[in-house]
Amino acid sequence: EPEVTQTPSHQVTQMGQEVILRCVPISNHLYFYWYRQILGQKVEFLVSFYNNEISEKSEIFDDQFSVERPDGSNFTLKIRSTKLEDSAMYFCASSPDYLTVYTFGSGTRLTVV
Amino acid sequence: GEDVEQSLFLSVREGDSSVINCTYTDSSSTYLYWYKQEPGAGLQLLTYIFSNMDMKQDQRLTVLLNKKDKHLSLRIADTQTGDSAIYFCAERGYNQGGKLIFGQGTELSVKP
Predict the structure, then answer these.
(1) Mean pLDDT over residues B75-81, rounded?
(2) Cα-flanking dihedrals φ and ψ of residue B87, to 5°?
């Protein structure tokens, strides 16, 4: 069964550093998403991406965050200057269309120290 | 904004049925989902129901939807210790651009 692949599975970074979280969505999917889950809390929507542009973003997704689909297969989330409160599990997801159930990756655990 | 609520904990004995409940506020919900998360792992889609359905059964799982009360439940028959996990309810509204709104998760503990 096709999978959404996320790398790395765990990343530790120092406060103030830039991090890039990588995702390879399912190959024929057109809609891409990032979510995050702070330990013990809800899974929260960050951003959706379609047709090479952001289609929706949440209040969490401020100027420190950006997304990119650089080469037609990868979908990346960049955090420019990490803060302690960015420590969370980040999930990528993809979907073939606007309404179909989508598939989540296994997540990247980001720890900011 | 739209919200999804779940109770935080449920404890059952192995072999019993588990019922996990969820309420939501978005009246334009199109799909409602149940995800399972084991410790340190990702989100595994268990089942989902379209908003014009009342019930969906899939092996040991039964989803009931009361659209009038905006109440969703997941019943797991013959619960096993391997079912111990956190279960998230999520809804997708017609006007939400495809994003999911998650509940805070119900931790299911299955005792032998």
Answers:
(1) 97
(2) -115, 125
